Amino acid sequence: MRLQGKVAIITGAGTGIGEAIAHKFAREGARLVLSGLPADPVRDVTEAIKGAGGQAVPYLGDLAEEQHARACVELALDNFGSLDVLVSNAGIFIASAETDAYRIEDFDRTIRNNIRTAFLMTKFALPHLRKSRGNIVYTGSEAGMNGSPMFTPYGGSKAFLHAFMKGVALEQAPYGVRANCVCPGAIDTAWTRGTDSPIDPAAQATIGAMIPLGRRGTPEEIANIFAFLASDEASYVTGALWLADGGITPAKNDIGTRVPDALRREPKGVLNLKHSHDGLHGKDVYRAPPVLVP
Ligand SMILES: NC(=O)c1ccc[n+]([C@@H]2O[C@H](COP(=O)([O-])OP(=O)(O)OC[C@H]3O[C@@H](n4cnc5c(N)ncnc54)[C@H](O)[C@@H]3O)[C@@H](O)[C@H]2O)c1
Question: 17 CB less than 6 Å from ligand 1?
Answer without folding.
Answer: yes
